[in-house]
Write a structure and sequence with these properties.
With about 400 residues, this protein is of the alpha/beta class. Helices cover about 40% and strands about 15% of the residues. The chain folds into two domains: about 5-45 and about 290-390, Aspartate Aminotransferase, domain 1 (Alpha-Beta Complex); about 50-285, Type I PLP-dependent aspartate aminotransferase-like (Major domain) (Aspartate Aminotransferase, domain 2, 3-Layer(aba) Sandwich), CATH 3.40.640. The chain contains 13 helices and 13 strands. The protein binds pyridoxal-5'-phosphate. Pyridoxal-5'-phosphate binds near residues 103, 127, 173 and 207.
Length: about 400
């Protein structure tokens, strides 16, 4: 085979082996074994039927042709209106680009702001796809370790000292996966101040913004000084249980939106019209469905926290948002990878090695509550039994 570009070496990403246990559990489940899968973050809810019906209607009506590459005007207008309502940032449909999921939005944002010789700052732990999305541009990903024993918070001084003359931007998942941390107003202001001082982009990945359990979520775009340097990325995946529909959006200054449109022209040629119709229905008619899913996730979080609270040697960090819970297993003296394998082999419960998200995730495992209450209770019971009975 002829040689390939150096890009292929940069898109491998980190932590691929952490998914082994998940793959194994899925296979075992298919073979009828008694396993409980806490390792993946795909909502277990069906997409609300109104959304599905509108896609079906659009298909029946022949909405099967090429589309405006930037996305349907109606959908972009709706997103712009809702964004302005939430943030106060005055945007129009021209600031919005429809992308196949936040993941693609992050990738496009990366390509527009960074290139070889640049650095992009993010956190450790970091969502696993960030490395490849950033490094694909030729830039380097620089991670700032979160203060683990302060609840995985971002320290301002750590962030400041990571900035160099090569830094082009700060990429943050807020709310965070895997920690469930939501940045405080002060933390956000510090980040914005640094971005202004050093002329950096802020790429704000807000896919869990509608799954915040306490208080109001604040968007970076609501901070006036940030508005000409923030690219907000979000999607329908988590809010409306639409992961497989692959639809999301970015909100960006108009020149950036124009460049993202050019990128999409060269690699996508627009999102399917019927999927966009489904998204219009989601935004205009399904707020209550999304609130109800959020309440269910919150109840599940509390159920797991309660079920694990008496367990010896492990401690849970209460997530403020999202669909995951980090469990501190450091007192077992096992590595996260060992814990994950031994737990699975002893109980059939698959959790994810926190080390997949970076070195500060070592000593933690991630539980996803995209499972029924029954499975969450039974899985938690098995975890408690495992840590109680194992001689570590
Ligand atoms: C922090 C974070 N960003 C982005 C994504 C990708 O979301 P989407 O399905 O919209 O591409 C995920 C998915 O789990 C995520 O956890």
């Amino acid at each position: 085979m002829p040689s390939l570009s150096s890009l292929v070496d940069r898109i491998g990403g980190r932590g691929a082996s952490a998914w082994d246990i998940h793959t194994r559990a899925m296979l075992d489940r298919e073979n009828g074994e008694d396993v409980i899968v806490f390792s993946v973050g795909d909502p277990d809810f069906d997409t609300p039927s109104k959304i599905v019906d509108s896609a079906k209607r659009a298909l029946d009506d022949g909405d099967t042709h090429y589309m405006d590459v930037r996305g349907k005007e109606t959908l972009r207008r709706l997103i712009a209106e809702q964004h302005t309502e939430k943030t106060g940032q005055q945007v129009t449909a021209q600031n919005i680009v429809i992308v196949p999921g936040a993941q693609c939005g992050l990738f496009c944002a990366s390509l527009c702001v960074a290139e070889s010789g640049n650095e992009i700052i993010t956190t450790d732990p970091v969502y696993t796809t960030y490395e490849a999305a950033i490094c694909a541009t030729g830039a380097q990903m620089v991670t700032v370790a979160q203060r683990v024993d302060e609840g995985f918070r971002t320290d301002y001084h750590d962030l400041k000292s990571a900035i160099t003359a090569k830094t082009r931007g700060i990429f943050l998942a807020n709310p965070n996966n895997p920690t469930g941390v939501v940045l405080s107003d002060d933390e956000m202001q510090h980040i914005v101040d640094l971005a202004c001082e050093h002329d950096l982009w802020i790429v704000a990945d807000e896919v869990y913004a509608d799954l915040v359990y306490e208080g109001e979520f604040k968007h970076f775009a609501s901070i006036p000084e940030a508005q000409d340097r923030v690219i907000s990325v979000s999607s329908f995946s988590k809010t409306f249980a639409m992961t497989g529909w692959r639809i999301g959006w970015i909100v960006a200054p108009e020149p950036v939106a124009d460049h993202v449109e050019n990128l999409l022209l060269s690699m996508l040629y627009g999102m399917p019209g019927f999927v966009q119709e489904a998204a219009i229905t989601a935004l205009s008619e399904c707020k209550l469905d999304s609130l109800s899913m959020r309440d269910t996730y919150r109840n599940r979080r509390d159920l797991v926290l309660n079920a694990l609270k008496e367990a010896p040697l492990i401690k849970c960090q209460k997530p403020m948002s999202g669909m995951f819970l980090l469990v501190d297993i450091r007192e077992t003296a096992l590595s996260s990878a060992e814990f994950v394998v031994r737990l699975y082999e002893a109980t059939g419960v698959a959790v994810l090695d926190g080390g997949a998200f970076g070195s500060t995730g070592e000593g933690f495992v991630r539980i996803s509550f995209t499972n029924s209450e029954e499975d969450l209770l039974e899985g938690s019971r098995r975890i408690v039994q495992f840590v109680t009975e194992t001689d570590f």
